[in-house]
DNA sequence: TACAAGTATTCTTATATAAGTTTCAACGAG
DNA sequence: CTCGTTGAAACTTATATAAGAATACTTGTA
């Protein structure tokens, strides 16, 4: 019933990462220091750090130390952009067009996003791969959580890297719902593909370190040459 | 350089599950017994059991014991059948038609499947949900690994449950490649849907406890009312 | 039914050794 | 003297053992 100590350590470390005590990429105190600091034994601190590593919140390297995960364009893309070539290779899409607007949140957005925001930023991007239009992504985030976002345009390829660097908001997990559909007229024109092309539609909610739902994203993918890759364990 | 002890314990337990020493659903010896048996300390055995639990190979319950995972139609479906309703509820499809044939393996199948089989069983099933055709699945398995499979028809809804119960073959992981497509004439007729309906196509390879690729599966899903659910961590 | 005893696991602490990484001073070759 | 190598020291995490306390579950008994 009561929370195990290692769980408490786990939470405390997450708190400290979230409040900037341990900034992105920073080295954490070693196991003994952390243990002494929180009044537990080294083994208990170790167990907490291990599960933080399992969740990809920190990285540990023998002989070096424990570091807060640093989102790079590479690992962010690898983790959250699931399109692969037919042979399984990673795809690096090139940004194409980008628009950012601020608008009122829809009822669904207000209900889902963190702190029931009244206003959101909507970031729409078309990306291409090897010259062909590849996907259209529309990302919706609470405006209060990302002040000054519009002034940062044009945004980098990897949104989540920017979220971490500029806002200390570390994206940890996401849920996606996929379905097959046909490109309608508007969509086709926007992306530069033929109307009626089969497309993979994804609707994602994204959560950060503090389990806050910080993004809703809709993606339209052209999967003529590519596939969406899923692992099940 | 040398294999850690806990890793050895991990392997030994997997071996014993695979060779039937610990059959599906069976209780393993407790941590102290297992440790004594393999000549390690209880903490080391514990570490191995924990990682087996992380991989969903065993289930542990404080006060009860450690048990070999038992695939039930429920958990198998939950884990490997990813279609959900728009509100996120689990879907239980009803089997519709089923055909099993034995045939020569294609070059791709021979290259991918365990032990480069010359012959395979091909299980084709159409399933429906709430009266509507939902999906067509074509599962290909090496015939040598599943002797007498054809005599078992009609197969149950959950193939992997039967693999475990009848052949002690425990499915642990799978990789899937998804893309959007249009139902062609043959496909449409077979499933009872309109030609040109957008469908989600999945190509899966499935691995068992011993990391053997024991199945290749192609699925065609009608995602008009349903979505394919993916979690990213 | 309620309670107590027994069993099994988890949680926590403690200690020791192994093994990677970095730093830096000492040393030798040129 | 300068440069590069060597090696020790100090740091880190990783592995392993041992042992006691707390918690969860089962079962026997009143």
Looking at this protein, list some descriptive labels.
233 residues, alpha+beta, 6-stranded antiparallel beta sheet, two-stranded antiparallel sheet, homodimer, 7 helices, 10 strands
Describe how the helices and strands are arranged.
The structure is a homodimer of 233-residue chains.
Chain A: H1 5-18, H2 31-38, H3 42-54, E1 58-61, E2 65-68, H4 73-80, E3 83-85, E4 94-104, H5 107-112, E5 119-129, E6 132-142, H6 159-167, E7 171-182, H7 185-191, E8 198-208, E9 213-222, E10 226-232
Antiparallel strand pairs in A: 1-2, 3-10, 4-5, 5-6, 6-9, 7-8, 8-9
Helix pairs in contact in A: 1-3, 2-3
The structure holds a DNA duplex (30 and 30 nucleotides).
Structure commentary:
Two copies of one chain form a homodimer. Chain A is α+β, with helices and mostly antiparallel strands and 233 residues long. Chain A contains seven helices and ten strands. Chain A has helices at residues 5-18, 31-38, 42-54, 73-80, 107-112, 159-167, 185-191, and strands at residues 58-61, 65-68, 83-85, 94-104, 119-129, 132-142, 171-182, 198-208, 213-222, 226-232. The first copy, chain A, has a six-stranded antiparallel sheet with strand order 4-5-6-9-8-7. In chain A, strands 1-2 form a two-stranded antiparallel ribbon. The first copy, chain A, is globular, with a radius of gyration of 20 Å. Chains A and B meet through strand 7, strand 8 and strand 10 of A and strand 7, strand 8 and strand 10 of B. Chain A binds a DNA duplex (30 and 30 nucleotides) through helix 3.
